[in-house]
Design brief:
Length: about 300
């Protein structure tokens, strides 16, 4: 088993520990103050967790929340707090952003490594070192960071609790993957609301690990162009609730639809992670060391 596959399998337990961490660290990290105007940020998979958190926080009535990649953050726009997600704690764009807003905006960092510069760069830090990874490709840290943030928001109507998501994840790490997704030549991932960030991460994971042809869109945008590439041997994968009529549209063009509406979307993302590893191995790639990537982007 690859290191990436082993780390993927630990996510149910990591999410449960994230709930405990939210109870103990949330207030100290400044994440329990409802009503703050906040922005979430990160790079790569951490960035894709940012819009998911932003949508969930607003849905929970906790306050206006935006999301930006750290390299495109609109410094100068007024926020009460910036929440930065960074597994390594060394990513250049994140550290530069935190330095630029220091003293003007409260900052919270969520990291996997307590021995990195982000510990001094942010005003408050939540360390999720139990979810850190050896693999270059992020899997469990990104989802555990989102689980931590979800747990801190409390219950939200229409969204499962993190405990319920972890129960779904227990099945997602073991159930066989369908032949249709294993043999496909192209995959389009779709999300709506908070799950759009997960769709973006699903597409990235497949490209990173397996060099696969994947795309990701808001579900309601699928008919406005992206459906043109769907057909026999190609997959449309919906993370979260399926919009009315979408199943019929995919069937009409001959594509294969995946829509596990009874499963928490974060748990469904685990199935995509496993698919990415399986495809990488089938091509002779090393999923632990994907081409052209390093564990952290540190710019000169």
């Amino acid at each position: 088993m690859s290191r990436t596959a082993a780390e993927i399998a630990t996510q149910p337990s990591c999410w449960r520990r994230a709930v405990e961490a939210a109870d103990s660290l949330g207030a100290a990290a400044g994440l329990t103050a409802g009503g703050e105007r906040s922005a979430a940020t990160g790079c790569g998979p951490s960035w894709f967790m940012a819009p998911a958190y932003a949508a969930l926080r607003e849905a929970a009535g906790q306050g206006e929340t935006d999301a930006y990649p750290s390299s495109e953050f609109p410094v100068g726009r007024p926020y009460d707090r910036i929440v930065a997600i960074t597994r390594s704690g060394t990513t250049t764009e994140v550290l530069e952003l935190l330095a630029r807003v220091r003293g003007t905006t409260a900052t919270t960092a969520i990291t996997g490594d307590p021995k990195t510069p982000v510990m001094e760069a942010a005003d408050a830090v939540a360390v999720l070192d139990f979810a850190d990874e050896e693999s270059v490709v992020q899997t469990r840290f990104a989802t555990t960071a989102l689980a931590f943030l979800r747990a801190g928001l409390g219950e939200t109507e229409g969204v499962k609790t993190v405990a319920e998501a972890a129960a779904d994840a227990e099945l997602a790490v073991t159930e066989p993957l369908p032949d249709e997704v294993l043999s496909a030549e192209q995959w389009t991932f779709l999300g709506r609301g908070w799950t759009y960030g997960l769709a973006l991460e699903a597409g990235l994971k497949m490209r990173e690990a397996a060099g696969a042809w994947t795309e990701a869109y808001p579900a309601m945008e699928y008919r406005h162009g992206p459906i043109s590439i769907t057909g026999p041997g190609r997959v449309a994968w919906m993370l979260g609730a399926l919009p009315e009529g979408l199943a019929g549209d995919v069937a009409r063009v001959g594509g294969h639809l995946v829509a596990r509406q009874e499963t928490d979307p974060m748990a469904d993302l685990i199935r995509v992670q496993r698919l990415a590893v399986a495809l990488a191995e089938s091509k002779g790639y090393d999923p632990d060391r994907p081409r052209n990537l390093t564990r952290s982007v540190i710019l000169a």
